[in-house]
């Protein structure tokens, strides 16, 4: 019997610590400045980052023979995220519900992606169309909720609360997991994640959310607690989902767009899943 050669998995280069620090500090500075001073600037940054993320996932899926309609997907990403945010902000003036813009731009992007692939013929059509629909639902649809949070009253503070809960989740998970972690949570996806670390993620994210919401958003403390728990849960799922994609296609980093950090998706994976959950928490809390 002939032995099957092992699959060679490409590994990314070692981290460049000075570059990672410079890029990280630069992104933090831009995010803070735009959240405080100029919300359209934050949306512009979000559009650029998600568009790059769409390119990353397109390239990743191409490694396993799935070719998405890159141009319609990237253009649609900008329209879906930017358009839904603008519609939400201008809704009191235009009286056009933001969800109509979101659904319309989402539907248009799907239609264009499906039509774009038609000249390639029937062979592989379902496979390639599935790649496009995966990226559209994964990145611009989920990413649009970041803009919808920003369009809310005190939106900048709410986006910051979501991001800090993600940071608290990552920090709590790392500290507790490194010191007390014994029981793997998802060994086939991320061997280093443990149930003890997940408990640490929930605990610190809930604490961060509670304090931020109670003191800076003037909301009941329990809103922040629920926010932290939801963000930690869905943010962890987002991290695992991106790990599944990378393992399936055989890469370590999505790209090298962010020196020292890897790809854009390596930094946005948690936020994409956490943003809809955070939007739901803030929306329901406003109606109570």
In quaternary terms, these chains amount to single chain
Low-confidence stretches: 1-13
Reading side by side through the largest sheet, how are the strands ordered? 1-2
* Separation of the first and last Cα atoms: 68 Å
Please state the structural category. mainly alpha
- Broad shape: globular
Helix content: over 70%
Could you give the count of β-strands? 2
Global mean pLDDT: 90
Q: Beta-sheet strand percentage?
A: under 5%
What is the topological layout?
Blueprint: H1 17-37, H2 39-62, H3 70-94, H4 98-117, H5 125-150, H6 155-180, E1 184-186, E2 190-194, H7 195-216, H8 221-249, H9 265-286
Antiparallel strand pairs: 1-2
Structural notes for this entry:
With 288 residues, this protein is an all-alpha fold. The chain is 75% helix and 3% strand. A two-stranded antiparallel ribbon has the order 1-2. The protein is globular. The N terminus is likely disordered.
Summarize the structure.
The protein is mainly alpha-helical. It has 9 helices and 2 strands. It has a two-stranded antiparallel sheet.
Top keywords for this entry?
single chain; 288 residues; mainly alpha; two-stranded antiparallel ribbon; 9 helices; disordered N terminus
């Amino acid at each position: 019997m002939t032995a099957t050669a092992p699959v060679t998995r490409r590994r990314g280069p070692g981290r460049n610590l000075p570059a990672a620090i410079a890029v990280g500090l630069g992104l933090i500075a831009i995010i803070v400045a735009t959240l405080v001073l100029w919300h359209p600037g934050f949306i512009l940054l979000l559009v650029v980052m998600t568009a790059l993320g769409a390119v990353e996932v397109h390239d990743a899926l191409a490694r396993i023979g799935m070719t998405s309609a890159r141009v319609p997907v990237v253009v649609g990403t900008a329209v879906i995220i930017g358009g839904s945010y603008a519609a939400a902000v201008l809704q009191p003036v235009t009286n056009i519900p933001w969800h109509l813009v979101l659904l319309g731009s989402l539907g248009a992007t799907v239609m264009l992606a499906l039509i774009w692939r038609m000249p390639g013929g029937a062979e592989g059509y379902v496979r390639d169309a599935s790649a496009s629909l995966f990226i559209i639902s994964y990145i611009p649809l989920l990413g649009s909720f970041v803009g919808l949070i920003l369009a809310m009253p005190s939106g900048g503070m709410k986006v910051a609360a979501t991001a800090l809960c993600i940071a608290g989740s990552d920090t709590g998970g790392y500290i507790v997991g490194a010191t007390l972690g014994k029981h793997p949570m998802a060994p086939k996806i991320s061997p280093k994640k443990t149930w003890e670390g997940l408990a640490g993620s929930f605990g610190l994210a809930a604490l961060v959310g509670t304090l931020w919401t109670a003191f800076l958003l003037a909301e009941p403390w329990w809103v922040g607690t629920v926010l932290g728990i939801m963000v930690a849960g869905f943010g962890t799922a987002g991290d695992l989902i991106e790990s599944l994609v990378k393992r399936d296609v055989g890469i370590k980093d999505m790209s090298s767009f962010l020196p020292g950090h890897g790809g854009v998706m390596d930094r946005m994976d948690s936020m994409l899943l956490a943003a809809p959950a955070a939007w739901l928490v803030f929306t329901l809390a406003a109606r109570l």
